[in-house]
Structures are given as C-alpha cells and as structure tokens.
C-alpha cells in the first residue's frame, strides 16, 4: 500500500497483487536470462530466494535485495512458488531430482515453473516426480531473448494443469508481455521447439540471401529495406539482421556478442531433431539447420550469437 499527494488530498493507492500474494518466490538459474527475469520479480515487489551453481552469478541479484541460498533444496524449503531457468535437460533433472534438488524439500502444494528449453518428455517426467511429492510442475519456456527478458517483454508458452494456469500467470506477467496456455505438460516445450526450429531456418535463409545480394553488388542496408517491404520479410531480416552495420542494437553490430548463443541454438535444434524422430515427422530443413549450427559450434562460433551464421558463410567462401 502506498500514498501520494494529489493537490490538497492524499490518495491511497492499493495494489491488489501486493495485498494478495507477495510471498517469496524461489528462482534457480541466474544466467543471461534468469538474472533479468528474477530482477523483474523483485521490481514487482516479490521477495526472491535464489541460487545458482555459480555463486558469482548471485551477487548482482543479492545486491538489489534477493536472498541467496546454497542449493535448490534450500530454495524449496523457503518458497512455495519456484521458477527454474536452466541450460538443458540434464541440468533440469539434477536441479529437481538430484541429491540437493528441489524435490528433496518441496512442500505439498508448491507450484514449480520451469522456463528452461528442454525435451518435452523430460518435462512430463518432472511433472510425475513432482506430483508424487504433492507439488505441481508446469513447463513455461520463453521466447524473446536477453533484451526482452530485461524489459519484461518475454513470451511464455505454458504447459500444465489448466486450473493452475492462473497462479502461474500471476508471476509470469511480471516477466513477460505474452503468456499463452498451450495445453498439458510438455506442450509449452513443443511450441518453443517449433518456434526455434523456424527461427534457425529463417536466420540461415536471411544470412544466405544477404550474402548473395552483397556479392551481386547490392548495398546491405538497401537490400534489407527491399526485403522488409517485400514478401521475403521475416523476423531475422526485420528485427535481428545478421549483417554487421545494418541495424543498431543487435548482436551483429557488436561482434555477435550477447543474444542467443550458437550452442544453445544447436541444442534446441537437437531437441527438434529428437522429437521429429520420435514422432516420425520429416524436417529436412530443420535437420540441415541442426547440422550447420553443430559445425559452427565446433569452429569457434560456440559462444557467439546464432546470427553469426552470416560471418560463418563469409568465411566458408574464403572472404
């Protein structure tokens, strides 16, 4: 509850959310995405209890008010709503079911929201393990990248019990502009995997197109302008152009630093490949994109943004 002066009167402003449920929220995984997400929870008045496998990752959040503990089990002991943001399926399995995992000390009725991008089968496995402990697990992977995480403009794709969606939505709206219910556990992951497969294919296509146009003598900014007013327009050409100097504020204009790493894209494409194999779904372009990003990861591009495919293609042709 807060008060501000309006003329000669004092007007009391009451936040229903702050009255209703500003109980502590646990947050596990304070990397490039997790740290700004947890920061936005703090900005919205939620006490945050956090941990990360790298203690130095916790310092910035601790400096702005988060309580830092030693393990996921310690988080579960102190919070009945927990968000995890982790790099891969093995990390999620360890954080939830490991010897110092969440499920060692989870309270009955705890809401567990996993925003990692992992195999949908692992999400379903974690949901079953949580259910045995009386807790509720939902998958809620994100789209939007580090910039959107900082600005609380992420898109969350949520899978889980529909009756728990509103409780999850309360927290997720503090960190994102769009929260979409997709269905049962695992469907959030399915939506994310499909999105990122298309993103990778689109980025490779944009990089190839820009490279060809430049070799044909076109100015890259002019070509970009033409593409973005024509049928070839896509997110990679319009919002995240891979050619250095064409667009400000994107990784290509910062030596491909920041953004969404090549290894993470290769990982997500691997998830798409695995699920496509399991469902006997042909994904010829998705499979090729997976191979390309795996090769890039082994040739010095692992920690660069995935838009560095443009630089990779230029080097492949000897320029």
TrEMBL record:
PROSITE patterns the UniProt entry points to: 3_HYDROXYISOBUT_DH
GO molecular function: 3-hydroxyisobutyrate dehydrogenase activity; NAD binding; NADP binding
Annotated family: Belongs to the HIBADH-related family.
Enzyme kind, highest EC tier: oxidoreductase
Pathway assigned in UniProt: Amino-acid degradation; L-valine degradation
Organism field: Oryzias sinensis (Chinese medaka)
One Gene Ontology term, aspect cellular component: mitochondrion
Active site residues per record: 192
Alphabetical UniProt keywords: Branched-chain amino acid catabolism, NAD, Oxidoreductase
EC number: 1.1.1.31
Protein name in UniProt: 3-hydroxyisobutyrate dehydrogenase
6-phosphogluconate dehydrogenase NADP-binding domain boundaries: 25-183
Limits of the 3-hydroxyisobutyrate dehydrogenase-like NAD-binding domain: 186-312
């Amino acid at each position: 509850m807060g008060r501000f002066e309006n003329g000669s009167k004092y007007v009391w402003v009451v936040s229903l959310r702050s009255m209703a449920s500003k109980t502590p929220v646990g947050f596990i995984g304070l990397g490039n995405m997790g740290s700004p997400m947890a920061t936005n929870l703090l900005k919205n008045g939620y006490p945050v209890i956090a941990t990360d496998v790298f203690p130095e990752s916790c310092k910035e959040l601790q400096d702005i008010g988060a309580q830092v503990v030693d393990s996921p089990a310690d988080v579960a002991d102190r919070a009945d709503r927990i968000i995890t943001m982790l790099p891969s399926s093995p990390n999620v399995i360890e954080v939830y079911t490991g010897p110092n995992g969440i499920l060692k000390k989870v309270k009955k009725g705890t809401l567990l929201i996993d925003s990692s991008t992992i195999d949908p089968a692992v999400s379903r496995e974690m949901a079953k393990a949580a259910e045995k402990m009386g807790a509720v697990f939902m998958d809620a992977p994100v789209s939007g990248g580090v910039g959107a995480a900082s600005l609380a403009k992420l898109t969350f794709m949520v899978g889980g019990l529909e009756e728990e969606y509103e409780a999850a939505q309360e927290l997720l709206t503090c960190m994102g502009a769009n929260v979409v219910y997709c269905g049962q556990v695992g469907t959030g992951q399915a939506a994310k995997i499909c999105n990122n497969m298309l993103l990778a294919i689109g980025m490779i296509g944009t990089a190839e197109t820009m490279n060809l146009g430049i070799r044909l003598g076109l100015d890259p900014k002019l070509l970009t302008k033409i593409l973005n007013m024509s049928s070839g327009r896509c997110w990679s050409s319009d919002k995240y152009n891979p050619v250095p100097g064409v667009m400000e504020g994107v990784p290509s204009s910062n030596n491909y630093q920041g953004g969404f790493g090549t290894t993470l894209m290769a990982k997500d494409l691997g998830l798409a490949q695995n699920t496509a194999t399991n469902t006997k779904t042909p994904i010829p372009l998705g499979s090729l994109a997976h191979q390309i990003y795996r090769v890039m990861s082994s040739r010095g591009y692992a920690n660069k943004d995935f838009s560095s495919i443009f630089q990779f293609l230029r080097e492949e042709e000897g320029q």
